[in-house]
Each structure stands twice: as structure tokens, then as C-alpha cells.
Design a protein that fits this description.
globular, 518 residues, 14 helices, alpha/beta
Length: 518
Amino acid sequence: MLRGYRFARPFKFQGTSLKGSAPAAAATNTILFVGLFIVASAILSSFWVQTSNFQIGSSTNQTIVVSNKFKKTPKPVEFPLNCSIGNQTQTCPANYPTTFSNTDELDPSPNPLCPDYFRFIHQDLMPWKRTGITRDMVENAKKTAHFRLVIVKGKVYVEKYKQSIQTRDVFTIWGILQLLRRYPGRLPDLEFMFDCDDQPVIRSRDYQGLNSTRVPPLFRYCGDRWTRDIVFPDWSFWGWNEINIKPWEGLLKDVKKGNERIKWMDREPYAYWKGNPFVADTRKDLLKCNVSGTQDWNARLFIQDWILESQQGFKQSNVADQCTHRYKIYIEGYAWSVSEKYILACDSVTLLIKPKYYDFFTRGLQPVHHYWPIRHENKCRSIKFAVDWGNNHKQKAQAIGKAASDFIQEELKMDYVYDYMFHLLNEYAKLLRFEPRIPKGTTHLCSESIACPANESPKKSMTESLVKSPSATDPCTMPPPYEPRALAKLYRRNINSITQVQQWEDKYWENLSKQQQL
């Protein structure tokens, strides 16, 4: 059978008698039949000759290749939000997809290999590789969790414990609901706790010796080398409603256009930062690097007044309009900051002040290739050297900025954000040693139950980030875990790159000091 091409149903002659004698009628029928056969043959012959896309194989291979122009691509089934007047109670539609049934419509092309940072999924789940995850472990993670999320038979149930900062919990849950719309029926039953605060809390030192088999699995937005929290994409990928930042997919397009407005060579040859310095001492320390009447550290730093910005509708906080300097500074606040991905998305060189925390994708960044490392101590001297080096090596500096923005555009596009969530939750579910259940007091949630009653601003973000159809492709192919030796090599390479920059910096200030003494 030729897939994608429909043959016409054969015509049937109706035994209609012709007037005249039987022999004459028979002769006439024969003549008509022969005439029709000749005409049909001519038409088919013409069609066959003129259609170069049809090819007959050799006698040993009779495969027929049919042109794609005859193949009908099935229209994807869409599931728009049902917030009509008839659905005032915001109930979940009966036709909401909870099972996967479109295997015949999947794109048959090979799935791409997931980006390398997916490998850290295995690292994050390593504490439970040997023991698995028991119900007691999950319950112990409840101490600081904002909500429990359960998936049973493709449906989401949430048990809320406390209010999160702003609407972090709402948009995190919204993102998981969109994952299930993208890959309906592809996630197994599972149950986990989620903490929406900034700093990780599952300290490794508390789970050593006999306690090493009792580590609570707790999901959150960032981790560090001293904790074992499981890192998950943050809420802002679906919009940061409180500061008027749109969902990631649309924002990436805006930033790409913003990059094109001012080419790297034409940008201000300084390091730019704008934010709230009062959330951490390290940010207060950064302000000392601002230009003054006596010293220019090549930094242009601005305090973000969120109250004023809110009153003015965040007109001065558009991320896509802030790619105006050759260098942009990233510095952590109370913990990691969601601003990192917005800074990296500019073609500017990211001056990354030594971080303590990581989120799910930053472990895939390489110093000197994707960013320029800045010392935590002596920030001002590091920033000045970095800018001077970049302005004296413009092509190399420009390449660093471009590598970072390419990484964000290509390896952190929304497709990979969903695939990371998909693989992380699947790998986590494999470790469960109990049957997930729907606890009493949980709420069954779907896109309608969250978006329909929402206010205008959050509803706009949800509408823009809504997954309308199941994916036509499988998720990217999960890479294997790092071998211990390969992971050690990766860390060693990054440390060597950072050490090399510090040696250049020390030499720079040494030479400058000698010049001043002459």
C-alpha cells in the first residue's frame, strides 16, 4: 500500500443495453470499450511521463517513491482553552487528552540527542539510585514544600501547603500541565514535593552514614554543591507576571530582534548591570564598581526601583531592550537569579561573577566559551580587566557573546525545556518504590481550572504559553550519565579555564602597577 496517496475508486460499468440487434450491440460495446481503453491509456501514459516524482524500481526492487506533494499531513488535534460561558465552573473538558494515541502521526525522522546538560539529571537523582524512593522519603520532603503534585492516569492533582512568593507555584504547576498537553499519556504515575523558595535546603551533611538512605527528594529551581535538591525549570519560562516578563518562547524572539538592532561593535564598550542590590551583600559590594569622579572600572550599574517600575508599567525593564552594551554582568542575589538566561540571551559578553548556585541548564556552560569568569572578591578589578581585554580582542569577545546567545536560542528553546521536564520526571518515576495515590484534599487541575478564573495579566501569559496540540515528535533522546572520569575531566577543564583567566588578570594588574611606578 502506498502511504499518503489515495487511489481513486475504480469505475463500474452498469449493464445498460444498447438499441439494435444483439450482435450489433455487442460489436458496438466492443468498439466503445476499446476506444475507452485507448483514451484511458493515453491519459495515464501522459500522466506517468509528465510526473517525474513517480519512479519504478528495478526488477529486484519494486519500491515506488511517491512525491511528498501528494502526501496529506494530518492536521494536529488542537485543545484550546474552554473558558466559554457554558464552562463558568472551569471544569476540565471531557475530551482533554490523557492518553497517547497519535503514534501513526509522529514524525518518523530520528530524534535529536538532548543537550549535554540533560546528563545532570542522572547526577541529581544519584542519591536514590541504589535505594529507590520510598513514601516515607517523599513525606519527609513535605517540611518546606509549597505543594505536592501527583500524576495518576494522565491527570494532575495538587495538594497545597502554603503560599509561595508571588505566583511561582501557580506558573510552575501551569508548566507541568502544559507538559502533559504536549506529551499526553507519556508520563507514568508519580508523586513529588516542590519547594518554590530560592535557596536549596536538603544539605548533604545531614544525610551521611545511616541517614544516607533517607534523603528526602525535594524539587526546586536551583541547587549547589552542598545540597541534594532536585533542580527543575523555574516558573518564569511561562511568564513572570508580576514584572511583566512574557513567556520564554515569545521573549526569545524579541531578544533576537533586539540583538539585531544594535550590532556588538556598535554597543557601549562597558559592562552593564541593572537590578536590586539590596537582596544580598555581594550585590551591594558590586555597586562600588560604578563609575565615579575618581575611578572608572568600566562598569555602568543601575539600581532597579521595582515600585517605580510597577507604577510606570515596567516600560524601562523590557529585557529585549537591554542588549545595548558589549558586556553584561550576572551576579546572584539571595540565591540564583532567573535573570541569568535573559543576560546570556544578549550577544553581549556575560561577565559571570563566581556563582554559588546552579539551575538546570547552567551546568552546560563553559567558561571563556560561553561567559567570562569574574572573581567574587575584587570584583571591580576583574570587571575592568575583562572589559579592557574584550575591547582589545574584539573578535574573540564577540565570539563569546555569540556562543552564549546561540546556546540560549538553540539549546534552551522551549522544546528542550519541556523535554528536560519530561526526562527528569520519567527518571524520577522509575525510582519510586510505592504506588502513587491521590491524597484526600487534593485538587484535580487542568489548564481551564487555572487559566479561566485568572485575572487579565496572568491569563494573558497563560494563553500565550498554552500548548495547544500534542507534539508531532518524540522527546529528544536522553544522553547517558557521565562516567566518573569524564565528569572529573569536565570539572577540571572548567577550573583550568577560570585559572587561566585569573592568571591573565594578575599579569595585567602587575604590568599596570609597574607602568605607574615608572
